[in-house]
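Predict the 3D structure for this chain.
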Amino acid sequence: MRKYHKITPEGTKDLLFEECLTHRYVERTLADVFSSHGFHEVITPGLEFYDVFDTESSGIGQEVMYKMSDKRGRLVCMRPDSTMPIARLTATRLQNLPKPIRLYYTQHIYCNNPGLTGRNDEVMQSGIELLGARGRRADLEVLATAIEALSRCVPNFRIELGHAGFFKAIAAQLPIDDAVREDIRQYIEAKNYAALDMVLDQLGESKSVNAMRRLPRLFGGEEILKEAAEFCVDHASVATLSYLQELYSALTDLGIGDHIMIDLGLVQRTDYYTDIVFSAYVEGCGDAVLTGGRYDNLLASFDAPMPAIGFAMNVDAITDILINNGKGKKAPNVDVLVHCDDGYEMKAFCYAANLVGEGMRCENSIFATRKESLDYAKEMGIPRVDFVGEKIETLTR
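Done. Predicted structure below.
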């Protein structure tokens, strides 16, 4: 018995009319930004071998992947991330290209979110990857491109800038194993202060414990870097703050400092990211609409070590924000309805094609009588009806 033939699976939805038009507008806008900066589009398969997303290098838990087996019994999954397949693609088919390699994409990812109601399991992402380049200039280029892409779509946004190395440096000083370290990371990312304190209380008092306790609250302007300096435990942590200061100052000099905040509690997927990390938020959306960072160790897992940095934007979220703010894209009205009398169908098709060639939006009537066509035009708000028979007659409303 069919139970589910009239609904979509949890975490998916149909897109209609204005949603489709706005969705395509966002996709085209982002593609224009990326291509104008020398990035080239790639598309990877929706199905990948599970090995591509090895948990140790990807930071993606196997529980969030949609998995199945192919005809040979090999484990495959629906793409939960775009960066890993692009790393695979770069390591195999683009290895001999001059560096840096600039790539962009617009494609779906699929992640199972069993405990997060309201979040989509199927998400359209658009983003860039700058591969084979390290250093301040590459980081600034990617951040500036992210800001330009956001600016072209939504006027008010905030980018939170952090550094994966700061958390790693502090965590390395704590007497904990990898499992507890990951628990702490997740509590900081979720701003779950109660759970974080419960773990840290078991470790006693130390500079590193106090730093970790304070980490999710180290959020704000440039002054946060000075406050965080008190918690530096080694040269590595000092270096991360110094580099963040450089980036923050450079972005301020570019006139985009108003969009930047420092967030040292930004600790997403630290096994994946190696240096700077960043997320973007827009009013009206609780989740980040853009996430990114530097992942210099990832390509080594595909036997093609090279530095890399990139970001992904949630096209679905941007689309919803535009529609909710009354800035969705609507299809222009049809200019003319063409009705044909019996025996004049081909003449009507040719006539309608000529109108379209002149730049008009034209719809062919499939009704048998002129009255039905007139009633339909009135209902749909079409201002003009052309009757094609022995001669052409036009009626405007």
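The chain has a mean pLDDT of 89.
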